[in-house]
Amino acid sequence: MNAIEVNHLCVRYGSAVALDGVSLAVAAGEMVALVGSNGAGKTTLLDALSGVIKRDSGEVKILGRWAHVPEGRQLFPDLTVDDNLRLGAFRTGDRDTAWAYRLLPELERTRKQAAGSLSGGQQQMVAIARALMSRPDVLALDEMSLGLAPIIVQSLARILRDLNRERGLTVLLVEQSVRLAFSLCTRAYVLETGRVVASGTTAELAESPFVENAYLGKPDAAS
Amino acid sequence: MSAFLSYVVHGIAVGCGFALLASGLIIIYRVTRVVNLAQGTFSVFAGFTAATLLGAGLPHVVAELAATIAAGVLGLLIGLVAIGKPGTSPQASLIVTLGVGIFAYALEILFWGDQPRSFAGVEGSQELFGHEFPFQYGLVIAVTLVVFGLLEAFFEYTYWGKALTACASNPYAAKLVGIRIIRMGLFAFGLGGALGGTAGVLLTPLSPMSYDSDLILFVNGFASAILAGLKRPLFALGGGVVLGVAQSLVAGYAKASYQSALALLLTLAILVVQGARRPALEEPE
Predict the structure, then answer these.
(1) CA of B167: which chain A residue's CA is closest?
(2) Closest approach of A205 to chain B, Cα-based (Å)
(3) Total domains, chain A
(4) For position A13, which CATH number holds?
(5) Which residues partner with A68 through β-bridges?
(6) What is the ipTM metric for this complex?
(7) How far is CA A128 from CA A73, A136, A159, in A?
(8) Residue A147: inside a domain
(9) Residue A145: helix, strand or coil by DSSP?
(10) Average pLDDT over chain B, rounded to whole?
(11) A150 assigned to some structural domain
């Protein structure tokens, strides 16, 4: 059963084509990576799945509840961490934040602080916790590791893996860091200029000269 | 000294009215990024409506409350026209509010005529230092304080208040968590209408309201909002009172006709100073 199914999705910004017939599928309980260079359309794809931008054509099916951790955290900086989390439950109305703090205990002591005053790593945790507050079945994360120290990235990755194993959370991970994406996910799609140019298991893709050359920084592999 | 005190008290009362108007402007602007040029219309409409309802025999308080609620409904309707269509740019919405404000002139003249209208507020006054201070001043100040207290509590302690703040601080993230921005914008317009209406029913007994009073009310409300940095509604209270007192002193010691010029000058000065502080190149949001 697919948790996400996208068929021939097209999105345009004026005359510029951002997504040009993208199709992909993510099975329920799977962790799938979406990689590609800047401007490939990864963020646009997530925004289109979230419904915050207009889809020009194509079909999108999402099974269950969807939540999206956007690029750059996008918190409500003047509101407290607690308020940020409670607003994450806007759709469901279940605003009890206790379980989010159990999941991310590091946040507990910041609950009364303004979200904008936290460190980058803490903000990313708030962004993830806010998305989780809607009790999603499918979680999309956009550039989770960007600008964060490796140790923080590792702990966030562990949280994701646990959520996936223990709660069967489906994860769609957009990452610049292809190594991180491939270490977390079982399958991946490669997006270039609005099109899927490669897909497969991360093990296969890591061996492919094209991916090695473009994303894993082994230029000699292509020659 | 006694004249000075009387100017200050008058200024505070009138400034409270400006502050109410300004808080509505700020709430609408923060949530929708639209400067509502029809903000003064709410006050005129509420003043006229209250006068009519009182004339029809409704008791005080009931008539004023009904007029304020009616202004809130008018706000909602203007909001529907201005931002109801998804994808309308704030600039387009701003022009719509200008058009609606002018259209309101026609309707007001049609229903209420072109003569200024007023009604008696709280009667009586208190003599202090040889000057009479109308009780209406006290009412204006007291109601304004209560309204601002309620507004603060609303934004500080309620989920809807937080959701409005969320829309203002990050509309994209607000959409992601499922907050409907247009619905929140309409709510802001309704709230802004009620706040403008409150200013109208409080100020009409102090000086008669005419169909075109909205312009001067808007200028003063906008100046107060700019003084408040267009940020927190509570700051508008300070902005409105400062402007009200300054105008009252100018009118008292110089010339009454300089009052609006003062509001415009203050607005201009603050905008120029703020504009100069801002870097020439800004990161896009």
Answers:
(1) A76
(2) 31
(3) 1
(4) 3.40.50.300
(5) A140
(6) 0.90
(7) 8, 11, 10
(8) no
(9) coil
(10) 91
(11) no
